[in-house]
Each structure stands twice: as structure tokens, then as C-alpha cells.
Amino acid sequence: MQILRGRCVAGVAAATMLVFGVTGFSWAKTSRTKGHTGVHSSVKTHPVISGEEVVPGVMPDEASSGTASGELPEDGKPYSLRMTNLHTGESLDVVYRIGDTYVPEALEKLNYFLRDHYTQDVVHYEPKEFDVLHALMSRLGRASGVIQVVCGYRTPETNEALRHASVKTGVAEHSQHMEGHAIDLRVPGVSTVQLRNTALSLHAGGVGYYPVSQFVHVDVGPVREWAFGAAPKKPSRRVHSAHSGTVAGE
After folding, report:
1. pLDDT for 32-70, tens place per residue?
2. How far apart are CA 5 and CA 14, in angstroms?
């Protein structure tokens, strides 16, 4: 009788650990992000990656390098970006900053390049976003590599339409894309995991990991990270599938 009673107590204790221990562990590992169904933030540690830091520049009329107001410095490190837009098919290779000073004409080209391709509306992007991309490519060892833009600017109307198009989009109600603060991207030859880890190493804003659609969201909002969806499983010998990758992130 004592043996049976002991077994019952042990069984209850095991069940309690199963319910509260495992569930509690899962809850601690994954927390929902407000406004995102299926989006969770991760507490996993990532490899330490060093390299170029994100140091925002200034506009010509704010520069204090000894040049006249509104003029660009004659020398200084050139900051360039090479990009291709997966929706419009357009490409851009531009020097957007010289030394500490942004090039206004180049910023205008980037603003248009990253326009809402549904409505053709343009927004003035936060230039620091381009500094983040430049530092990201530098840390990847691909300073002259091409960035594939999955999504740039989104008008509030486009953002709302995408949110309701499918529960699988991961589009936030108050998206940084609407502020000209975010870009979803891929880099050919670089895995989504490596791209995510390198972006996180910058500590310069938000980083969203979208393993199913295979892109990374990078913004200059508060420093945070999240993931949407699960990593795709390896296809079996009988089933082969491909993902179009048209989903837009936060």
C-alpha cells in the first residue's frame, strides 16, 4: 500500500513538472510581440561579430569639417551601397556619404528606389538606415556586394492591405516601414541566419528573422529582435517545394 501511494505521489509530481516546468520553459523562451500573431522574440545568444560600427553622419549644412555650408568635403571615406529591388527590377549603385557628410542627391535616389512599389509614393528615409546597411555589408566581408530589397517603404494603406491579405505575412500594425526606418533584405551567398546574426551584432535597431520567406528585417527603431515562422524543413525525396518569398516584415 505504501509503495502504491509513493508511486501515485511521484506520478503527480512528474505530471506537475511536465505541465508547469515544460510550459514555463517554453513561455520563457518565446514571448509574443504585440500586434504580431505568430511572432516571437528570442532570448538565444548569438556569435560575437566585430567590425565597422554604425556612426550616423550629418547633412552638408550641419557639417563642421571646415567646408562651406551646404558643400561636400573634397576628401573622406566614400560610403556606397549596391542594391537591387526584387519588385521593380531596378538596380542602384550609389555613394550616399563622403566622410561624415551625407550626399543629398544620393539620398533622394535611395528614397525613390525604396518607394512603395504599389502606389509609387516616396518617403524621406532616415539616413542612419543606410549606415546600418553599409556596416552590415562591411561586417559580412561584402562591402561591394549587392543587397536584394524585399521591402522598403510602405504607405499606411499598403501596410494595412498587406496585414489583412494573410495571417502569414507578419506585417505589424505600426510598422517601421511606414516611417522610412526599415528595409527587408537578402544578400546573395549569405544565409538568412548569418545575415540575422550580423545585423544583431550592430546593436543599431530592430532585427526580424523570417526563415520561411528567407529575409531579414533591419530597422533603426528600438534595439530588439524577433522571429516569424519556423525554419523550413529539408524537402523529402518525394516532395520538392519552393517559396516565392514575397512576404513583407515589420
Report:
1. 333 344 455 554 678 789 899 999 999 998 876 555 556
2. 14
Per-residue burial over 160-180, b = 16 or more CB atoms within 10 Å of its CB, e = otherwise: eebbeeeeebbbbeebbbbbb
Closest CA to 50 of 146, 144, 138: 138
Listed in order, strand segments (DSSP E) in 132-192 are: 146-151, 182-186
- What three-state secondary structure class fits 167? coil
Instruction: Say how far apart CA 73 and CA 147 lie, in whole Å.
Output: 27
Residue type at position 1: M
DSSP category for residue 155: -
Question: Residue 58 has what DSSP assignment?
Answer: B
Q: What is the mean pLDDT of residues 181-196?
A: 98
Q: Which of 12, 145, 17 is nearest to 80 (CA)?
A: 145
pLDDT of residue 5: 43
Confidence (pLDDT) at 233: 57
Give the pTM.
0.74
Distances (CA, A) of 94 to 64, 110, 130, 247: 24, 8, 11, 27
Q: Measured between alpha carbons, how far is 206 from 176 in angstroms, rounded to an integer? A: 9
Q: Where are the alpha helices (DSSP H) in 73-139?
A: 104-113, 128-139
| Residue 14 CB neighbours (<10 A) | 11
98 in Cβ contact with 77 (< 8 Å): yes
